[in-house]
Amino acid sequence: MCLSYFGRLALGAALASLANAHPAFRGRILSRDTDLLSSYDYVVVGGGASGLTVANRLTEDSNVTVLIIEAGELDHGEDFITIPGLAGGAIGTKYDWNLTYVANPSLANRSVSIPQGKIVGGGTKLNRMVFDRGSELDYDRWEALGNSGWGWSSLLPYFKKSEIFTPPNADIVAEYNITTDTSVHGTDGYVHSSYSPFIWPTMKNFVAAIAELGIFTSVDGASGNAYGAYFTQHSQNPANATRSSARDAYYNNFVARSNLHLITSRQVTKLVTSSENGSVTVTGVEFAESSASARSTVSANMEVIMAAGALHTPQILQLSGIGDSTLLSSINVTTIVDLPAVGRNLQDHVLLAVVNSITAPLTAANLTSNATYAAEMLALYESEYTGPYACATGDFLAFLPVSTYSTAGEAIYAEATTQDSSTYLASDTPSEVLIGYEAQFNLLNQDLLADNSAMLEVLWDDGAYILGLQHPYSRGYVKAASSDPFTAPLLDSAFLHNPLDLALLVEGVKFTRNITRTSAIAALSPVEILPGATVTTDAALEDFVRSNAATVYHPVGTCKMGAQAEGGVVDEELKVYGVNGLRVVDASIFPLLPATHIQSTVYAVAEKAANIIKGSDITA
């Protein structure tokens, strides 16, 4: 059955009413603080991918009670959320935190927006649904930084555990020669992982151009060799070509569990702690609907689990007195645990678009320029679950090592290896964070010229090359701006602070021109619009990068997993240092960004976290 938009609205309203009114559903989806139990075994802060995954897995034991507190709302199945061809449409709406990185002198003093999901399902409701993984080396670096049990071989079972994999349909295989490796995919998970049933025709030109340049194409990028190029999966239900979000996967199917409660439109204002004999324990959370509304509290018998994301988890810790005492003093928050690394180590993939006009009979622009075509394609989608509206973005991705896309690798390497690792970090960076970053810096240098380490993503979009810098050297921070939890935190991406990042992106722009010169792309009569063919010198290209770089929306690392003496905030079991009863399970624990869109990695980390909490980690 395929419900219309208004049909889905009606069904959503009916389910919400049932959840709140029917005795059998009392407490499953809550609307009033008074409906809460006084305590739960686990309180999960954040209802995105990580929070819903952990909550689901913990409540597999019917004797365990879990409350999820989510600042956002439940969506109503709006088309811009459910239809792949409209993916990203929730950005800028009420379902988005609408955050912004602070003005950055390295970006020509620009402020860059950083959308984050404020909705049950989190970023899995806002993103472009790419469901790829990094390479083996990406995760083995985590282990090399001292995090035993967090390498590729340890995470692979959890990538598989989260997934319901469906191979591409026969027509797409025949047309694009897509290959897969079923041994690295799961079929018993909850998130649908499938291929688009429709791919825009000019993608063939890009695929051919990659082959013409002699770039390796992986049998399946999910197999750990995600360098070169590959056809990628999406978080998409192949039965009806709709988004498969964390809410769909980990909550909706289990909403009837009497031990799994969710309350929405509540923002956690701080963690409740107690101290005895010098030992600090988190005993619950305080939350509220708005800055002006009364605070409520709920107790946690076992643990509070932070899953608010890389931008809000550190803010909540700081407002709870867990963080850098100097910062906390400046915002009139009493320090309970002096943990200076909280909020540091912020990393995000840097985005840059190089745009060409092309001549082709059919491109995505037809959906906006031709109303008749758009209506016909929407009808096709609703009746047969195929066509352009069944296609999100990024069906074929190139993740390229430096040696693949640049001839300047040796020069960049020489600059990197003579650089002092601390030079381009913030002047107030704590000493332990400096030590930890030096280890990261040395690892990045060690692999800078490696053939199995991708530095640049290249995504084709009908003439536009969307570049993503995968392993930036720059590091930013998250700082609570005030003691008011309803004031957005200060977010400094530090994009391009380190000139190595600028050089790597300049080389990326040059590489797009190599692609454009292939016969496969030349057949489309491309004309470079941005930055424009006359922009050729390194200085001019640097200006272009500084004036146009933005984010791929993948912030991580602000509660880094690692040794406390090296800037770690959580240990290998994701427990926060110096505090009992508190873990972090979201992307803030990533020590280093992997070269991938991070959605599936967040699920894998959360799946592993749930098993750690339950004492049943299958890779321990």
UniProtKB/TrEMBL annotation:
InterPro entries: FAD/NAD-bd_sf, GMC_OxRdtase, GMC_OxRdtase_N, GMC_OxRtase_C. GO terms for molecular function: flavin adenine dinucleotide binding; oxidoreductase activity, acting on CH-OH group of donors. Residues 117-140, 309-323 form the Glucose-methanol-choline oxidoreductase N-terminal domain. FAD binds at residues 127-130, 268. Transmembrane segments: none annotated. Its cofactor is FAD. Coiled coil: none annotated. One of its GO terms (biological process) is secondary metabolite biosynthetic process. Keywords: FAD, Flavoprotein, Signal. It comes from the Eukaryota. Residues 1-21 form the signal peptide. The active site is at residues 554, 597. Belongs to the GMC oxidoreductase family. This is Related to alcohol oxidase. It comes from Phialocephala subalpina.
